[in-house]
Request: fold
Amino acid sequence: MKSNTADSFSYYRHLLTETALPGQEAAWLASLRQREFDRFLQNGFPSRKQEDWKYTSTAALANTAFEINLQTQPLDKNRYEKTNPFIRLEYHTMVFVNGIFNKTLSHLDNLPKGVVLKEIIQAILSNEISSEAQFENNAHRGKPSCHGFSTLNIALMQSGFYLAVPENCTIEKPIHVMYIACDTPYEAHLHNHIVMEKGSHAHLIEHYIGLDKMSYFNNVISDIFLKEEALLNHCKITAESEDAFHIATTRTTQGRSSTFKSYSFASGGKLIRSDTHTLLKEKESEALLQGVFIAKNQQHIDHHTYIEHASEHTRSREWYKGIAHDKGRGVFNGRVRVEKGAIGTSAEQRSNNLLLSREAEIDTKPELEIFNDDVRCAHGATVGYLDEEALFYCATRGIPLKEARFLLTFAFVKEVVDTLENPHLRSILMYIMQSVLEDQIQC
Amino acid sequence: MDNRNTQINQFLNKEYEHGFVTSLESDALAPGLNEDVIRTISAKKNEPDFMLQWRLKAYRHWVTMTEPAWAHVHYPPISYQDIVYYSAPKQKKEALKSLDEVDPELLRTYEKLGISLKEQERLAGVAVDAVFDSVSVATTFKEKLKEKGIIFCSFSDAVQNHPELIKQYLGSVVPYRDNFFAALNAAVFTDGSFVYIPKGVRCPMELSTYFRINAANTGQFERTLIIADVGSYVSYLEGCTAPMRDENQLHAAVVELIALEKAEIKYSTVQNWYPGDKDGKGGIYNFVTKRGACRGDHSKISWTQIETGSAITWKYPSVLLQGDNSIGEFYSVALTNHHQQADTGTKMYHIGKNTKSTIISKGISAGQAQNAYRGLVSVLKGAQNARNYTQCDSLLLGPDCGAHTFPYIEVKNPTAQIEHEASTSKISEEQLFYCQQRGINTEDAVSMIVNGFCKQVIKQLPMEFAVEAQKLLGLSLEGSVG
Reply:
C-alpha cells in the first residue's frame, strides 16, 4: 500500500509501462490507455474547486492507493454461495473477486442464443470490441462524466464485462454481476460495456459487496448503448465494506424510443460517488432514474445525475431519496439539460431527504438548464426530520418511539423500492434496507 | 403563429424609454485605476483617514483576486483600466441648501424619468435621494425625517457627519474581501445612500434612492448602508436607469442592511438599467452584492426585486439570519428579453434558532435571453427548527430563450424543514385560447398572464412601485407573444 499521491502516480505509470496490463495486444487499446493516462496526469483527481465535486473530497482516496490485482483471486465456494442472495434463482451470473473475473463461480450457461456476455478484455482480444471508436462512449466526451477517475479507469482498466444483446432478443432472467471484495485490500478499475440492439430487452443487476472489514477501492465505468426501442432495466446495489471507496460512472446513450430504467441503492462504503449520465439522443427516448441512499457513521454518499434531452419528445423522471444518520453525509446533485431543438420535453425531478442526527448533513441541488420553451419541467426537493404527527399517531397506537421511527424511516425508503418490477429483487432489497436501518435507528 | 410572431417582434423591438443623455458639465477623473485614483477620490470627498485606509486595503486585496466565472453568463472581458471611476455633475457651490440650488438640467432629467424631486418635496409620500453618476445630488424630506431622529442622506454626508456609525457598520455585512466586485466597490465607491433609523421609530414614509448613470465610460459604484436600530421599521425603494450607449457600462454596487433586535427592513428594487439594443449591443453590467444581517432576535429583512433591465444581471440579495426567531424573505421577478442575461437569486443562512425564510422567484425569459435562478439555503448546526420554503418558477416565451435553476440546499441540523419547488413551462395554448375567446387580444392576454405569474411578488411592493412595476413588465415584454 502506498501513501501519497505522487507515489500512486508513479505506481500507475509503472503499471502502464512495465507490467503487462491485459489486452495490450490490441494496439488501439494500448495507445488509448496512454492518451487517457496523459490526460489523467494533466488533471489529476478531481478537486473540490470543481463545481461537480464541491461537496465531495477525494483527498483521502488520492492519499491511499492500493495494489491492483492482475491474477485470479481465490474465494471459497461456500462463502460465495452465502453471499449471493439470488443463488437459488439461477440468474445469469458473473462473479468478480477483488476486481478479477472468476469463471468457476460464474454461471453463464443458459444465455439465449446470440447474447454475448463475457469478460471485457476477452471481448477485446476476440475482436468483439475491435476499435477505439466502438469502445469509446464519445457522446459523453468533455461532459461532467469525464473526470480524473474516468480517465484513470480507461488507462488502467483490468477487467469488467461486455454484454451484447442482439436484435429483438429478450433475456427473461436478470443478469446478475457481482463484484465481491474479500481478504486483501486492492484497487480495481472495472469497465463494463453494454450494447442493446434494436428492440432487445434485458435486466441487469450490478451488485457490489464487501465481505471483510478492510479498505479497498472500486473505480467503475458502465457504458451503455441503447438502440432503437431497446429497454434496459439497470439496478445497482452498492453494499461495500464500511471502509471502502467506490466511484462509479454510468453513461448511457439512448436511441429512438428506447427506455432506460436505473435504480441505485447505496448503503455501504466510506466514500461512494455515483454518477449517472444519460443522453436522450434520439426522439421519444425515455429515462427513469431512481435511487435510495443511507449514509451512516462517517459515510459520505454522493449521487450525481445528469440527463441531457437532446431530441424531440424525450421524457425523464428522477426520484432520489436519501437518509443521513450519525455523522453521515448525503449529497444529491441532479441536473437536467434541455437542448434547443428538444421540443415536447418532459422532465421531472424529485429529491427527498431525511436528516436523522445532529451530526449528519444533507446537500441537495436539483438543477434545470433549459434552452427552449416547449417543455414541461418541474423539480422539488425536501429536507427534514420524521413527521412529528405521524410519530404521535404511532404513539397513540401503543407503538414504542423507537419502533415508530424505524417504521416511518423504512416506509420512506420502501416507496422507491416498491417501484421495482422484479419481486425477488424487491424483497432482497427490502431485506438489505431493513437490516441497514435496524442497525441504525436507535433512540 | 406567423401573425403572432410579428406581434412578438413588434413588442420586442420597442425601444428603451429612459435612454436619453443629459448634457451636463461633469467633473471626472481620467480612466484608470491605481492607488492614486483612490487617494484622489478619497480627497475629493474629504474623507477621514480611516476611510482612505479601508479603501486602500480593499484595493490591495482586489488586485490579488480574479474575476469570478461561475455564473451562467457570458461577456467579453472587462478592462478595468478603461473605466472612469469618478464622475460628478459640476456644481457651483460646495453644499446645497435646498433643491433650488440643484442644476435645473439635472432636475429636468429626473422629471423626464418620472421622479419629480420638486413635486415630491411638496407632496408627502416618498423621500428621495437621487444619485447621478457617482454622486448624490439631492435628498428630499431631510428635515421632516430629522424630527424623528432618522438619518437619511448621501453616503458622503454620512461620512462627514456620522463617522462613528460608518466606522462601526461599514463592511460589517459585506467585508471588502467578500468577492471580486465587492472589493472593487470598497476601493472606489463614490457615493450612495445612508439610512439610520433610531430605536423604536417607525419610519413615516418610504425612503427611496434613484440611481442614474449619465456620463459615458463611467462605472457606477455606489454603496448603501441601512441600519435599523432596536424595534424600528423602514421601507426602502431603489430605482435605476441609464442612457442608451453602444458600450457596456459597469455597475458594481454594494448594499448592506443591518437589522437589530425586533427591527424590520423592507428593501425593494425596480432595476431598469439600459438592457442593450435588440442585437445585444451595449447595456449595463449589473454586478451587485446585496446582503442583510438579521443581527437581533425577532428581526426581519425582506428583499423584493423587479429586474427588467441590464445586459447582464449578477446579483444575490442574501440574508444572514443570526438572531433567534429572525425572518428572511426574498421575492423576485427577473425578466430578460433580447440578448439579456440574468443570473440572480438569493442566499439564506440560517444561524440562529427558529429562523424562517421564504424565497419566491419568478423568471421570465423571452427572445434570446438566458435567465438563471441560483440560490443557497444553508442551515448551520446550531439553527434549531429552521424553516425554509422556496418556489422558483420560470416562464419561457419563444423557442430561443433559456431558463435555468440552480438551487443549493445544505442542511446540517435535523430539526430543519426545507422545501424547494420549481417548474418551467411556456404560456399554455389553452390559457391564450381562453382569453382570446373572451375577446382579449394575444398581447393583452400574455401581459395578463405574465402579471398573474408575478403577482405573488408584485404584491410585496409598496403601492406606488407596484403600479410602475406592472407597467414595466408590460413594456419590457411588449411584442414577445409566442
